[in-house]
């Protein structure tokens, strides 16, 4: 990270330090109705909603620290989105060697800070298709998870805001599908030539490349403007939107930082898991806490199955292999891991993009300095590593032979792949160590470059998370098993062909100058496949390691109410419960699931 201005201690975000604790002994003698594990995307929503009832006491335990100090700049400044990767607010996981990616091991970031991954992610806000939620209802047997029934939770979660410069967004989104929630979203403050050409192509060839006024309307197919979790010139996270407002106004919510939950313990002989053990390091003293009502596990797709297995809940053999007594044989804990990958193709273009700005350290430093004054300027609305203003979600052609392998999409109006249009190169020398470290494609630093990222939205490869020891402080193994099915690799190849065809339409004439070298060689299916295996990186969207199923199903980890099957007192609320990789981007769905889950918990305990 090369920007000196980042070394300035930023104290722009003033948080009240109400009920915030940094050592377990400070809260060890207190009693709580609910204990929430992980102050991440879902955990902060649950903590804020449950503590709305003044009669309950809530403890939220987070392994990482607060989003203040130096971390505040990295987290809050939209331009710096992505630069938290590989820093003290990242867990710094790595995958196992991926056979589908020529044996490469992939750096695997997850947020290690309040807000969790919502504090370090690419800020894209994309709900996916209505069918995505209807599938959740079908697999769980609970119609309450359907798109129509979830509308009220969507509206209390999110709110559309204008960009910092008040650029008109008329005709770029549908205000009727956005609500009044604390999570702020918005569209780009600056429109570039690439964006105009994407939209122009949809008007030139609307049948083939349809414009979609709002990809968050439930109709998640077609081309449209991309929403990000940015409002008032700053990133909106589950911490800024939910946690801090709750801490500032309530005394019944305690936040315990820098403390890792090491396992859950049974508090009665009837498999009631309301006990939590936690410590600040592998060698530090273990403290125990009991919830009188429930424990809610929100440690994410990696952390949640790890904690379950450490507690003896999971595949019995895997648990016993590291010397833990199996309490409950639940084979799907840690199984069904699904993740999406990103791959970029780049072109030098005849028109301004952000790549020249981003390669100019002085200009970037000045932009950050301006942001620090009044949260305006180029740092206030465009992100460093994603820079996407327009995006499309598409299906394979109806006659594609790949669909004979079965259609993994959530329905016939849900995508198989995504193309996102970046007004920059995917990797910049000055940000080299951040978002896509495995994508070894640094384009020349001169000229203006655009990139298009290609994502297989509905992968059929299945991997797993596994513990490697009985210590919570040892990283689990993460094996997403990328590109281990014919469908996944075939879909990536088709997506790239669709992209090359899209860019050959008239709107792009004279704009696209020269492809980044490797792109020029993509002339056959075999060469495209080789490119995918050489350059695909994680999009950082793992799900499904504690997946939801019907109460009566033998498989799955949680039932429709998100209670863990076969035990009492324990619920899971995070991306691990999702049945499959999402049709959009996961954070929107995690927020929506968390809002309804909080309501289910409140109803179960008759809270207000
Ligand atoms: C770099 C990056 C970029 C991404 N970009 C996007 C994007 O642009 N758009 C999008 O929609 N999604 C994106 N995602 C994915 C999205 O952010 C996640 O799917 C979502 O935030 C997951 O929410 P969660 O609640 O399941 O987990 P998290 O938000 O990760 O929360 C888990 C929390 O639990 C804590 N924890 C874990 N284990 C323990 C323990 N033992 N004890 C105590 N605390 C623990 C963690 O520190 C963390 O705070 C991205 C993710 C990353 C990492
Ligand atoms: C992640 O790695 C960076 C760089 O080595 C380090 O500074 C940081 O402390 C690590 N994060 C954690 C949670 O250990
Ligand atoms: C945008 O509009 C708001 C509300 O009307 C106003 O306060 C703000 O100064 C405007 N910002 C710019 C850059 O015009
Ligand atoms: C939690 O409950 C268990 C079982 O009832 C008990 O043994 C333990 O002492 C309790 N711990 C605390 C901190 O209350
Ligand atoms: C923000 O600060 C910059 C730099 O001082 C200034 O040029 C700009 O006018 C300010 N904008 C607003 C809306 O206050
Ligand atoms: C593909 O099939 C679906 C229904 O199966 C139909 O709605 C759609 O119009 C078809 N697309 C094309 C391009 O024919
Ligand atoms: C699918 O249809 C298109 C256009 O109708 C055609 O060009 C292509 O060859 C067909 N593909 C297959 C696999 O049949
Ligand atoms: C999980 O890890 C254990 C301990 O390292 C190992 O024995 C087992 O084979 C692994 N199982 C899977 C499915 O990866």
Automatic annotation (TrEMBL):
Where does the signal peptide begin and end? Answer: 1-18
Task: Kindly provide the name given to this protein in its UniProt entry.
Answer: Aryl-alcohol oxidase-like protein
Q: Which family does it belong to?
A: Belongs to the GMC oxidoreductase family.
- Residue span(s) of domain Glucose-methanol-choline oxidoreductase N-terminal: 300-314
According to its UniProt record, which cofactors does this protein need?
Answer: FAD
Indicate yes or no for the key word Chaperone: no
Highest taxon of the lineage: Eukaryota
Q: Which Pfam families match?
A: GMC_oxred_C (PF05199), GMC_oxred_N (PF00732)
What would be an example GO MF term here?
A: flavin adenine dinucleotide binding
Keyword line: FAD, Flavoprotein, Signal
Sequence positions that bind FAD: 113, 261, 586-587
Looking up InterPro entries in the UniProt record yields: FAD/NAD-bd_sf, GMC_OxRdtase, GMC_OxRdtase_N, GMC_OxRtase_C
